[in-house]
Amino acid sequence: MSGYKILGFIGDGIGAEIVPEAVKVLNAAADAYGFDVEHLGPYPCGAHYWVSHQMMRGWPEEVTSELFYEADGIYKGPTGLPDLVGRLPGPYLPVNMRLDLDLYANVRPCRLRPGVESVLRGREPGDIDFIVLRENTEHMYVGIGGFLRRGGERELAIDNYVQTRKGCERIIRLGFEMARSGAYKGRPGAPADGKRRLTCSCKWGLCKGDDLFKDIYDGMTGEYPDVEPDSTWIDSWSYYALMRPGFYDVVVMPNQYGDIMSDMSGAVQGSLGLAGSINAGERHCFAEATHGSAPDIAGRGVSNPTSMILSVGMMLNWLGEKRKDQRLMDAWRGIDRAVDAVLAARKVRTPDLGGSSSTEQFGSAVAKAVKAA
To answer: Which of 19, 209, 238, 323 could form a disulfide with 163 if both were Cys (CB 3.0 to 4.6 A apart)?
Structure first.
């Protein structure tokens, strides 16, 4: 093949600054690890694009729906603008391809990295290294619901939360497999005791869908005797994750819970700007930065591109596993190590980490570290 087809989107706000740095690192990894990339884009997309195109298109016409299916991997910068929240329909976002591409797993590592201080007192690099594994297609975000209007006012709002056996089984099974393999982590097992552990966190006993989630989890534990089972209510986990983060290895949750708790985990590791993320299924993978479009700092060249860089690296690892291409898996590890090396050196740091370096300077430093590995 001529190369892996990677489809990219820029997004809104700081997307125009962080996406080019991720592309720079991707190209450095391709050179260093000997694989070819055929770049498709990155194309403009997002709320601004939708509004400026008469609310008819979320991205350029040449990006057909077929292209999403043909691409080996996809990445996207942050999308959305605060003054347009709730006023735009779903189709302006490529991320709405989650259902069409069946991207059922959102994988968000939480690791305290060298040279970064956690908000938790006394925690050192290596003390925090867990993954929030979020089911990505069900629960509160299925879009089944609506409003009752009387006299022109919204009188009643309904959201229906949905869990299916298929949806629960596949995300929980992936959780066990990830705990077993240590994928996307600094090392396998929980930092506190080294045990491979899968924690199930939801609200069983009160919510019927969560009862199904927990029952399926309990029924699957016997298939993985090498992975220690652990369960806690989601509200309790929000407490324990702060009090004893080193106990956790992989934590699997329904959709809405994972959306909220993975953002909290970003704070635990020092910044959402440090958190990588992929939306993955059996056939497709969509990498995206975990944070928002930050229009308040857009255009200043001070945003942290780490989340976007790590997300693209995670996409390479997913693709390497699916295609059995060790080069891509090695490239992910190389990118991960390069980010650690730059952060540990404390010489090139963006303002959110207490430094004065630009977005471009940080991206260039990571790319250089990838090539030097």
So the answer is: 209
